[in-house]
Description:
By secondary structure, chain A is α/β, with parallel strands linked by helices. Chain A has 14 helices and 15 strands. Chain A is globular and about 65 Å long. Chains A and B meet through helix 2 of A and helix 3 of B.
Amino acid sequence: MSNLSRIVITGIGLTAPNGNSVGEFRANLLAGRARVAELDVRHMGRHPAGVCDFDATRYQKRKELRNGTRAGSIAIYCAREALAASGIEWERYDKSRAGVYVGITEHGNVETENEVHSISQCGYDTRFWTHHHNPRTVANNPAGEVTINLGVTGPHYTIGAACAAGNAGLIQAAQMLQLGEVDLAFAGGVSESIHTFGIFAGFKNQGALAHHVDPCKASRPFDRDRNGIVISEGGAIYTLERLDEARRRGARIYGEILGWCINSDATNAVLPNPERQTECVSAAIARAGISPRDVHIVSTHATATPLGDVQECRALRRIFEGCPDTFINNTKSYIGHCMGAAGALELAGNLPSFDDGVVHPTINVDHLDPECVLPGLVVGSPRRVERVDTILNNSFGMLGINSVLIVGKLC
Amino acid sequence: MTQEKIHKIILNIIAEIAPDEDISNVNPDVRLRDQLSLDSMDFLDIVMELRKKHGIEVPEADYPQLASLASCGKYLLPKFQEKGL
Lengths: 411, 85
């Protein structure tokens, strides 16, 4: 990508079930602290779920919270936190040169289920269907709410990419910056999925919903006894800028977007395809102009489904065998699967490794599945490593969408 | 039912749909929009709450009647009375 602008991360804002800032999130990852609650899901009873507790009123009025969506609120909180971290003088910024690109797994299920439930209490009389339904459920809602809150007048839209969406939002933003469409991008992913029973019921009936007596141990990628996904909410939004402009204003640079790939399995709606995953990872590495040996952390997508984890391990084994300096971890073991936010959040959990040289571990692995044995897999406790210059972030989703993003330490 | 009670009903609805607003000193004779930060969606919320809580319908052509507390009281009083309230 030598003839294109270099794109860098200059701010991060996040909310995860175990942290509402990068610092808090990172501290909990290094301490091995999972945080998954037991949530009473409409029609479904109690299930483990990752619940965020950020202060939504920090950046929104109560009326805005009432009329808007949880996904929009998560996006606003994260975008505002990223902006604060970026040090940009927002009052003086040309807001027509900023864009908002938010990855989502789905949007509108929560609001639609709520309205159907609401009118079911009055004989399905649609006169009681809220007029807020359409602005809440249009697919651009979470990104659009950010523009209204921040006064951004450049482009905004969401990127629907199932659970590959967090990376996809960042990739879209990097491309738009390289095209010169914007000078500043708010990008990443969000999810409000825990508020829809449909996702729980869908995974349960697919045999892919996690259960465990201790909710904090329910998400257990790579463990022999894993039994499915813990559904979580969350968000991570980054400010991205072109390197020259970031340097000009003296910004702190958290990392550089080195390469990426999005491809499609073209095989099955739900079953992953390790061939295509391998191709996606390899293409991202090639695009970054590096070799597998140059990747120091692989942040896996693994969601703790019996097949999915094995398939990803198969793909990674092919690429990273013989790479002694490559270490592999998983963040869903702490917080469950944050769906559209997963890729962006998991990257945020790893980025501090550029500074502290520590790889946070995969937790909840009591008995490593022999089919998930990987060279360099960090299990149970953090590992201090010689160097962390490059992080490769996997994020895959239904309908066979794979996204891989590579971020490097700016040297 | 009295017009004053209707004022209270409308203020209670506003407190619910626009919780950031200070409704302690609303002048009944001044347009609500001129005193509070309310938009057209908020007025639709008032219409919806009247429907949900009191079974009262406000046809779209009559929405201007909801402009102030005084006009609400005058317009809605016969509707509440029709309901035996």
